[in-house]
Design goal:
The protein is α/β, with parallel strands linked by helices. The protein is 46% helix and 16% strand. It is built from 12 helices and 6 strands. Strands 1, 2, 3, 4, 5 and 6 form a 6-stranded mixed sheet that branches.
Length: 314
């Protein structure tokens, strides 16, 4: 499957490079943008450094460039706007962002680094049962298990705020009445307003119904129940009533949210996937580029697997 995966990757990278063109100056470079991006994806796929990608012996029959840039040129070019745009277009192609979805799930995943690391971009934050330093991946996946929108922040990044600012506004189009499943960390009135299209920042997710467990301190009860319900957005008020009237139905629906946990498991456990951050991937810019490329590879693997399965059936 590696050969099919890499062939599909090169096709998408070449197509994206042709769409972006060359905006780095009047003269075209000796090493085209598609080659720089392909070299970087190859290095990330094999969990190696940029220096490794500039060595002739690092390549195989799957991919063997005729000439290789120097490490300084490779490092400078992969940070350029053109190459970043190519990576974004490759992500959009494999994530199937143009396909409307009826169901989406959001969650965050910690990417810890050493507690004594000198990384200035790492932040301290809470992980499962402890505190650590590092980064956090925030992701929105669709019903086909594609990671369609993602963001990387410091480990102290608030999941509700990132969902409002970075995930929902850039999400793919959702059908009318679509459901966005989340955990109780996303129990937020501003997030409910944006998801329902009342806050003006949800983009193509406007009109979606955010479903999550209610936080204990946010339940409407006691003699102030009517006042608390009036202060809630209409979508959260409807969610409170749904939990009171149909708790078994919502609990069954939230079982689908476990799908994003399976997606994170596949993303991290597959060969060439997103395991622990290597020692040379430090700083928010490098971490974002590394994580984004791992997500491209994950989505591409799903696409190739579907093609092979369809070809086997026909």
């Amino acid at each position: 499957m590696d050969r099919e995966l890499w062939q599909a990757m090169v096709v998408v990278i070449r197509r994206a490079a042709a769409q972006v063109g060359w905006n780095g100056g009047r003269r075209r470079p000796v090493y085209p943008n598609w080659l720089i991006v392909a070299m970087y994806v190859w290095s990330v796929w094999h969990d190696r450094t940029l220096c490794w990608g500039c060595r002739r012996g690092s390549y195989s029959s799957l991919f063997r460039p005729r000439s290789l840039p120097s490490i300084s040129q490779f490092s400078r070019r992969i940070r350029s706007d053109d190459c970043q745009r190519i990576l974004q277009l490759a992500h959009d192609a494999f994530a199937q962002r143009a396909t409307p979805a009826h169901l989406a799930m959001v969650d965050g995943k910690a990417l810890a680094v050493s507690p004594v690391s000198g990384d200035r971009g790492a932040r301290s934050g809470k992980i499962s049962g402890a505190f650590a330093r590092g980064y956090k991946l925030h992701a929105l996946i669709n019903e086909a298990c594609r990671i369609v929108v993602w963001s990387v922040t410091g480990l102290n990044g608030d999941e509700k705020t990132v969902a409002r600012v970075a995930l929902l506004p850039h999400a793919p189009p959702l059908s009318a009445g679509a459901v966005v499943l989340a955990d109780s960390n996303y129990d937020s009135a501003p997030l409910h307003r944006d998801a329902a299209g009342q806050g003006g920042a949800a983009g193509s997710c406007a009109g979606a119904w955010l479903v999550h467990p209610l936080r204990g301190q946010r339940r409407a009860c006691g003699r102030f129940r009517e006042r608390e319900l009036r202060q809630m957005p209409a979508s959260r008020r409807a969610l409170v009533q749904a939990w009171e009237q149909r708790p078994a139905l919502l609990a069954m629906a939230l079982k689908w949210r476990n799908q994003i946990e399976r997606v994170f498991a596949v993303l991290t456990c597959t060969g060439g996937g997103l395991a622990a951050l290597p020692a040379w991937v430090r700083g928010l810019e490098r971490v974002r580029r590394w994580v984004g490329t791992k997500i491209i590879l994950y989505n591409a693997r799903l696409t190739v697997r579907e093609r092979l399965r369809t070809a086997a059936v026909t």
